[in-house]
Amino acid sequence: MLPAAVLLALALRRAAGLDLGLSTKCVAIPTDMAMCHDIGYSEMRLPNLLGHVGLPEVVGKAAAWQRLVSTGCHPHAGIFLCSLFAPVCLDTFIQPCRSMCVAVRDSCAPVLQCQGRPWPGSLDCDRFPADEDTCLASLGKEAKRGLGAFPKPICQTCPAIDELLTRRKVLDIFCIGNFAAKVKLSRKRPAFGAPEYDIDCQVEFINQGSLLPFDARSVIKQWFLINENCTRQLVHAHRPKVYLIVGTTEEMNIVVNQVYHWQKWDYRLTLATQKLKHRKCA
Protein backbone atom coordinates (compact mmCIF):
# COMPACT_ATOMS: atom_id res chain seq x y z
CA MET A 1 0.00 0.00 0.00
CA LEU A 2 1.35 3.45 -0.92
CA PRO A 3 2.08 5.94 1.89
CA ALA A 4 -0.53 8.60 2.51
CA ALA A 5 1.73 11.24 0.99
CA VAL A 6 2.03 9.27 -2.28
CA LEU A 7 -1.71 8.65 -2.43
CA LEU A 8 -2.32 12.35 -1.92
CA ALA A 9 0.06 13.18 -4.74
CA LEU A 10 -1.69 10.76 -7.07
CA ALA A 11 -5.08 12.19 -6.19
CA LEU A 12 -3.83 15.67 -7.07
CA ARG A 13 -2.05 14.60 -10.24
CA ARG A 14 -1.94 17.36 -12.85
CA ALA A 15 -0.22 18.17 -16.09
CA ALA A 16 2.36 20.13 -14.11
CA GLY A 17 4.22 16.87 -13.33
CA LEU A 18 7.58 16.25 -15.01
CA ASP A 19 7.08 14.23 -18.18
CA LEU A 20 9.28 11.18 -18.52
CA GLY A 21 11.37 10.83 -21.65
CA LEU A 22 11.89 7.64 -23.63
CA SER A 23 15.29 7.16 -22.02
CA THR A 24 13.85 6.47 -18.57
CA LYS A 25 13.16 2.97 -17.34
CA CYS A 26 11.63 1.14 -14.39
CA VAL A 27 13.92 -1.01 -12.23
CA ALA A 28 13.52 -2.81 -8.90
CA ILE A 29 14.72 -0.85 -5.88
CA PRO A 30 18.06 -2.52 -4.95
CA THR A 31 18.20 -4.59 -1.78
CA ASP A 32 21.17 -2.46 -0.67
CA MET A 33 19.01 0.70 -0.45
CA ALA A 34 17.62 -0.13 2.99
CA MET A 35 16.06 3.27 3.59
CA CYS A 36 13.76 2.80 0.56
CA HIS A 37 12.45 -0.67 1.41
CA ASP A 38 9.32 0.28 3.38
CA ILE A 39 8.03 3.29 1.48
CA GLY A 40 5.11 1.52 -0.23
CA TYR A 41 6.46 0.64 -3.68
CA SER A 42 9.16 -1.67 -5.08
CA GLU A 43 10.09 -0.16 -8.46
CA MET A 44 11.87 3.12 -9.21
CA ARG A 45 12.64 5.28 -12.23
CA LEU A 46 16.10 5.81 -13.73
CA PRO A 47 17.53 8.35 -14.25
CA ASN A 48 16.24 9.65 -10.93
CA LEU A 49 15.43 13.20 -9.85
CA LEU A 50 19.05 13.82 -8.81
CA GLY A 51 20.40 12.89 -12.23
CA HIS A 52 21.85 9.51 -11.26
CA VAL A 53 21.79 7.18 -14.26
CA GLY A 54 23.00 3.77 -13.07
CA LEU A 55 22.11 1.65 -10.01
CA PRO A 56 25.68 1.52 -8.64
CA GLU A 57 25.77 5.32 -8.57
CA VAL A 58 22.32 5.53 -6.94
CA VAL A 59 23.18 2.96 -4.26
CA GLY A 60 26.53 4.57 -3.50
CA LYS A 61 25.09 8.08 -3.19
CA ALA A 62 22.07 6.94 -1.15
CA ALA A 63 24.26 5.05 1.36
CA ALA A 64 25.55 8.35 2.76
CA TRP A 65 21.96 9.28 3.71
CA GLN A 66 20.97 6.03 5.39
CA ARG A 67 22.59 7.11 8.66
CA LEU A 68 20.65 10.39 8.63
CA VAL A 69 17.34 8.53 8.21
CA SER A 70 18.36 6.16 11.03
CA THR A 71 18.79 9.09 13.43
CA GLY A 72 15.00 9.61 13.35
CA CYS A 73 15.51 13.32 12.74
CA HIS A 74 12.16 13.50 10.91
CA PRO A 75 9.49 10.81 10.29
CA HIS A 76 9.33 11.70 6.58
CA ALA A 77 13.10 11.94 5.94
CA GLY A 78 13.11 8.52 4.25
CA ILE A 79 10.11 9.31 2.03
CA PHE A 80 11.60 12.68 1.06
CA LEU A 81 15.00 11.23 0.14
CA CYS A 82 13.59 8.17 -1.62
CA SER A 83 11.29 10.32 -3.75
CA LEU A 84 14.53 11.78 -5.16
CA PHE A 85 16.87 8.79 -5.16
CA ALA A 86 14.22 6.19 -6.06
CA PRO A 87 11.17 7.97 -7.55
CA VAL A 88 8.05 5.82 -7.86
CA CYS A 89 7.59 4.26 -11.30
CA LEU A 90 4.68 6.27 -12.78
CA ASP A 91 4.13 8.09 -16.06
CA THR A 92 5.20 11.36 -14.40
CA PHE A 93 7.80 12.16 -11.76
CA ILE A 94 6.18 13.02 -8.41
CA GLN A 95 8.47 15.45 -6.60
CA PRO A 96 8.35 16.24 -2.89
CA CYS A 97 6.49 19.45 -2.05
CA ARG A 98 8.53 22.42 -0.91
CA SER A 99 6.82 22.25 2.49
CA MET A 100 7.98 18.64 2.97
CA CYS A 101 11.54 19.63 2.07
CA VAL A 102 11.44 22.54 4.55
CA ALA A 103 10.06 20.32 7.33
CA VAL A 104 12.72 17.64 6.79
CA ARG A 105 15.50 20.20 6.36
CA ASP A 106 14.60 22.11 9.53
CA SER A 107 14.65 18.89 11.59
CA CYS A 108 17.59 17.12 9.95
CA ALA A 109 20.00 19.91 8.99
CA PRO A 110 21.05 20.36 12.68
CA VAL A 111 21.97 16.65 12.74
CA LEU A 112 24.12 17.05 9.63
CA GLN A 113 25.69 20.15 11.20
CA CYS A 114 26.45 18.13 14.34
CA GLN A 115 28.35 15.71 12.11
CA GLY A 116 30.21 18.52 10.35
CA ARG A 117 28.17 18.45 7.12
CA PRO A 118 26.00 21.24 5.67
CA TRP A 119 22.58 20.76 4.10
CA PRO A 120 23.53 20.22 0.43
CA GLY A 121 22.69 22.67 -2.32
CA SER A 122 21.24 19.82 -4.41
CA LEU A 123 18.41 19.65 -1.83
CA ASP A 124 17.66 23.38 -1.86
CA CYS A 125 13.97 23.51 -1.01
CA ASP A 126 13.30 26.33 -3.48
CA ARG A 127 13.77 23.87 -6.35
CA PHE A 128 10.66 21.90 -5.36
CA PRO A 129 7.05 22.75 -6.28
CA ALA A 130 4.66 24.60 -4.00
CA ASP A 131 1.95 22.59 -2.25
CA GLU A 132 -0.75 23.55 -4.72
CA ASP A 133 1.15 21.66 -7.47
CA THR A 134 1.43 17.90 -7.93
CA CYS A 135 3.84 16.75 -5.21
CA LEU A 136 4.28 14.72 -2.05
CA ALA A 137 2.58 16.65 0.73
CA SER A 138 4.12 17.45 4.11
CA LEU A 139 2.78 16.26 7.46
CA GLY A 140 -0.71 17.27 8.48
CA LYS A 141 -1.35 19.38 11.58
CA GLU A 142 -2.26 16.38 13.74
CA ALA A 143 0.91 14.55 12.81
CA LYS A 144 3.01 17.66 13.46
CA ARG A 145 1.60 17.92 16.98
CA GLY A 146 2.56 14.30 17.62
CA LEU A 147 6.23 14.90 16.74
CA GLY A 148 6.91 16.48 20.13
CA ALA A 149 5.20 13.79 22.19
CA PHE A 150 8.37 11.92 23.18
CA PRO A 151 11.87 13.02 24.24
CA LYS A 152 14.45 13.06 21.44
CA PRO A 153 18.27 12.80 21.45
CA ILE A 154 20.08 16.01 20.53
CA CYS A 155 23.51 17.11 19.38
CA GLN A 156 25.65 17.84 22.44
CA THR A 157 29.14 18.26 23.79
CA CYS A 158 30.76 14.86 24.20
CA PRO A 159 30.76 13.62 27.81
CA ALA A 160 34.11 12.49 29.20
CA ILE A 161 34.82 8.80 29.76
CA ASP A 162 35.22 8.51 33.53
CA GLU A 163 36.49 5.89 35.94
CA LEU A 164 34.28 4.63 38.75
CA LEU A 165 35.64 4.62 42.28
CA THR A 166 33.26 2.85 44.67
CA ARG A 167 30.02 0.90 44.51
CA ARG A 168 28.33 3.67 46.51
CA LYS A 169 29.39 6.26 43.95
CA VAL A 170 27.95 4.10 41.18
CA LEU A 171 24.59 3.97 43.00
CA ASP A 172 24.64 7.73 43.52
CA ILE A 173 25.28 8.22 39.81
CA PHE A 174 22.34 5.99 38.94
CA CYS A 175 20.10 8.11 41.17
CA ILE A 176 21.29 11.43 39.73
CA GLY A 177 20.42 10.44 36.16
CA ASN A 178 16.97 9.78 34.71
CA PHE A 179 18.17 6.66 32.94
CA ALA A 180 21.16 4.33 32.77
CA ALA A 181 22.00 1.84 30.03
CA LYS A 182 24.71 -0.68 29.26
CA VAL A 183 25.77 -0.22 25.63
CA LYS A 184 27.99 -2.44 23.51
CA LEU A 185 29.62 -0.65 20.59
CA SER A 186 31.61 -2.16 17.74
CA ARG A 187 32.69 -1.13 14.27
CA LYS A 188 31.63 -2.86 11.08
CA ARG A 189 32.08 -1.97 7.44
CA PRO A 190 28.90 -1.19 5.50
CA ALA A 191 28.28 -2.83 2.12
CA PHE A 192 28.54 0.55 0.40
CA GLY A 193 30.94 2.66 2.17
CA ALA A 194 30.19 6.35 2.33
CA PRO A 195 30.63 6.40 6.13
CA GLU A 196 34.00 5.31 7.48
CA TYR A 197 32.22 2.93 9.83
CA ASP A 198 28.80 1.76 10.87
CA ILE A 199 27.72 1.31 14.49
CA ASP A 200 26.67 -2.05 15.84
CA CYS A 201 24.95 -0.93 19.02
CA GLN A 202 23.38 -3.26 21.61
CA VAL A 203 21.49 -1.65 24.49
CA GLU A 204 20.53 -3.12 27.86
CA PHE A 205 18.69 -0.81 30.26
CA ILE A 206 19.72 -0.84 33.91
CA ASN A 207 17.32 1.94 34.78
CA GLN A 208 14.90 3.23 32.14
CA GLY A 209 13.64 5.92 34.47
CA SER A 210 11.79 8.72 32.69
CA LEU A 211 12.85 7.53 29.22
CA LEU A 212 9.30 6.76 28.13
CA PRO A 213 9.24 6.07 24.37
CA PHE A 214 7.98 2.58 23.57
CA ASP A 215 11.21 1.85 21.67
CA ALA A 216 13.71 3.46 24.02
CA ARG A 217 16.57 1.27 22.78
CA SER A 218 16.22 2.78 19.31
CA VAL A 219 16.30 6.25 20.87
CA ILE A 220 19.64 5.45 22.53
CA LYS A 221 20.99 4.15 19.23
CA GLN A 222 19.86 7.39 17.60
CA TRP A 223 21.88 9.35 20.16
CA PHE A 224 25.04 7.55 19.01
CA LEU A 225 24.21 8.20 15.34
CA ILE A 226 23.44 11.88 15.87
CA ASN A 227 26.53 12.43 18.04
CA GLU A 228 28.83 10.69 15.58
CA ASN A 229 31.90 12.57 16.79
CA CYS A 230 31.36 11.24 20.31
CA THR A 231 30.77 7.71 19.03
CA ARG A 232 33.97 7.86 17.00
CA GLN A 233 35.91 8.34 20.25
CA LEU A 234 34.30 5.27 21.81
CA VAL A 235 34.33 2.78 18.93
CA HIS A 236 37.49 0.79 18.32
CA ALA A 237 38.40 -0.96 15.08
CA HIS A 238 39.03 -4.53 16.14
CA ARG A 239 37.04 -5.34 19.25
CA PRO A 240 33.72 -4.29 20.78
CA LYS A 241 33.65 -2.25 23.96
CA VAL A 242 30.96 -1.94 26.60
CA TYR A 243 30.02 1.35 28.25
CA LEU A 244 27.63 2.51 30.92
CA ILE A 245 25.85 5.70 29.88
CA VAL A 246 23.88 7.80 32.34
CA GLY A 247 21.67 10.65 31.22
CA THR A 248 18.70 12.88 31.78
CA THR A 249 15.66 14.08 29.85
CA GLU A 250 15.61 17.87 29.83
CA GLU A 251 12.70 19.71 28.17
CA MET A 252 11.99 16.70 25.94
CA ASN A 253 15.67 16.41 25.00
CA ILE A 254 17.71 13.31 25.81
CA VAL A 255 21.16 14.23 27.13
CA VAL A 256 23.94 11.79 28.03
CA ASN A 257 25.80 13.29 31.00
CA GLN A 258 28.34 10.60 31.88
CA VAL A 259 30.03 7.64 30.19
CA TYR A 260 31.95 4.88 31.95
CA HIS A 261 33.97 2.04 30.47
CA TRP A 262 32.41 -1.22 31.67
CA GLN A 263 35.31 -3.56 32.49
CA LYS A 264 34.47 -7.27 32.79
CA TRP A 265 36.71 -7.64 35.81
CA ASP A 266 35.25 -4.61 37.62
CA TYR A 267 32.70 -6.17 40.02
CA ARG A 268 31.53 -2.75 41.30
CA LEU A 269 29.29 -2.10 38.32
CA THR A 270 27.73 -5.55 38.51
CA LEU A 271 27.07 -5.26 42.25
CA ALA A 272 25.72 -1.75 41.88
CA THR A 273 23.20 -2.80 39.23
CA GLN A 274 21.99 -5.56 41.52
CA LYS A 275 21.69 -3.18 44.50
CA LEU A 276 19.84 -0.59 42.42
CA LYS A 277 16.74 -2.81 42.29
CA HIS A 278 16.38 -2.51 46.09
CA ARG A 279 17.49 1.10 46.57
CA LYS A 280 15.19 4.11 46.72
CA CYS A 281 16.66 7.32 45.38
CA ALA A 282 15.98 10.46 47.44
CA gyration radius, whole angstroms: 22 Å
CATH topology of the largest domain: Frizzled cysteine-rich domain
Give the class from helix and strand content and strand pairing.
Answer: alpha+beta
For CATH, the homologous superfamily of the largest domain is named as Frizzled cysteine-rich domain
For the secondary structure, the number of strands is 10
Instruction: Measure the end-to-end span.
Output: 51 Å
The geometry reads as elongated
- Average pLDDT rating: 79
Number of domains: 2
Strand content: 15-25%
Q: Which regions are unreliable across 5 or more consecutive residues at pLDDT < 50?
A: 1-22
Summarize the amount of helix as a percent range: 25-40%
CATH class of the largest domain: Mainly Alpha
Keywords:
6-stranded mixed sheet, elongated, alpha+beta, Frizzled cysteine-rich domain, 20% strand, Netrin_domain, 282 residues, secreted, Secreted frizzled-related protein 2-like
